[in-house]
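Handoff note, outgoing to incoming analyst
You'll be picking up this chain. Sequence as last confirmed:
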Amino acid sequence: MLSVSIANSMMEMESKKVNITLSNTEVLVFPAVSLGGDNDNKEIILKSLTAAGWHVSENEGDKDYSWLQKGNQSLMMYFSSSKKESNLYFALASPVPIQNTQQSKASSTQTIPVENKPTQQSANPPVQTNSGEVIQQPNRPVPASAPSGFAFSTTNFDDGWTSTVQEDWVEVKRGDIKVLLHYPKEGTVFPADPEPLTNGAWNILVAPRYKNLKNYKTTYISTYNRPYLGMGYATEIATEKNVFIVFFLQERAWIEFITPDKNTFIQQFKFDPETIQWDSESDLMIPLSNMTRYNKFAISSSDLKGKWTSDFTGIQQMYYVYTGQYAGMNMNQSNEEFNFNEGNTYSWKLLVIKGMVGDAKYTEVKSSGKFEVPNNWQVKFSMIETRARTYHAYWSCIKDARILNLLDADYPGSGIYEKFGLAK
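Most recent structure output, in case you need it:
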């Protein structure tokens, strides 16, 4: 059971990069055999799978992972080999990822937006993801105008931007500029070259709201966290206004920038998107990626109810420096949860498992007490572990849900917030 849990955690870390959900993980461990090098061993396995009717494609990131597809079934596979043993993991994958570059390029001829044709008539539906973080403190929360279960659905930031929760995105506006922070959506992130990925995402998330698309193009910058860009001139169906659109992905969030013209975009974000090519300076993308910070909404004590959990998994494969022999696997897993109850009471629990597989130790600590919200951006707990603690806090949004972001106010460290989801 522990091997399956570790394998599942490892594979999920890779599958989440492309918004793929895994289930039913299977683990095969067998003695290493002298078939040749590691690549030869893997090739034998892949040839056997191909002979059995599976379509195999290599993962775009970590090459130890592969995607398998046969009929309506899709799997993720992980293979590693050492002198001591070989490990082969399988897990069911959903949604089905695009399997290879040839398929992706072939489909791109069908999904690319057609110039001068109203996109709402396209036979190919449109494609996308998201993240959030904190911006300068005091921001002005605005009470929610519609029932959502949360007190605040709008934030007026001190720099003039205003964020509003919408059904499929967070809308961020200032003057004539509108930015849509799209929520993660099935089919909008998958292993593919930049052009078919951007085309597919554009057709799902952007195309249905525009017509008369002109001068559409895609591009990217070759860097470790490659940014994807799509852009074009079109007419908004809802307003009949002509606009310039830039569509952007670098982490897990598709962001859509809508301006009256290209010059307005250049004035705000300090570069001409139509000049971007593979060797452009990646720092040009920082103003675009920074817009995810505006997915931020205030906290009210009435919002805090139910169980909210956060999970972390870290794994290290260990090898002896001088011999290269496998030395085992070191793991570090944690689960933290807050239970918010009636009368502003709560219970808190942290479970940590760490050490070498087969000799891992676990620690569990618990606390309970009362909480208060001294202002819209902090939560104070009467006891967490050994003392009272105050956390900087805010909500970020995904489709039909919110993420609770907490950061210890006394020990902010790197400033990275821990994220909690509502347990079902």
